[in-house]
Amino acid sequence: MQSSGLLFVAVGIIASAVGSAWLVVAAFKENILWGLGCLFLPFVALFFHIGHWEDAATPFGVSLGGCLLSELSTSNSSAS
User: Fold this and answer.
1) Range of the domain at 70
2) CA 51, CA 48: separation in Å to the nearest integer?
3) Which of 28, 44, 46, 58 has its CB 3.0 to 4.6 Å from that of 37, i.e. a possible disulfide?
4) What's residue 79's pLDDT?
5) Is residue 1 in a domain?
6) Number of helices and strands (H, E) in the chain?
7) Is 16 a domain residue?
């Protein structure tokens, strides 16, 4: 039972990392300054999400799904 929970946590972390990397790639495709800002400045990614939702919606969904999967499998395994 715990190994399946650990597997879901690992898959969630990987999905979140892929979504975040995908967002940085989308930002670099828009402009090099957006890409550098997303890499090095904390809130630039949030502004990129808001201003370029059509480019950032899918990476945001993948990252959010990974976070939710990790959180739900962590809270579910700690309850049992």
Assistant:
1) 10-79
2) 5
3) 44
4) 59
5) no
6) 4, 0
7) yes
Within a domain: 4: no
Total count of domains within the chain: 1
- pLDDT tens for each residue of the chain, 80 residues long: 577 888 999 999 999 999 999 999 999 999 999 999 999 998 999 999 999 999 999 999 999 999 999 998 887 666 55
Site of tokens 């962590």: 74
Handedness of CA 56, 59, 62, 66 (dihedral sign): negative
The pair of structure tokens assigned to 16 is 């979140």
3-class DSSP state for residue 43? coil
- Which helix (H) or strand (E) element contains residue 65? helix 53-79
Helix axes 53-79, 2-30, angle to 10 degrees: 160
Token pair 């739900």 in the structure block, residue: 72
**Single-letter code of the amino acid located at 35:** G
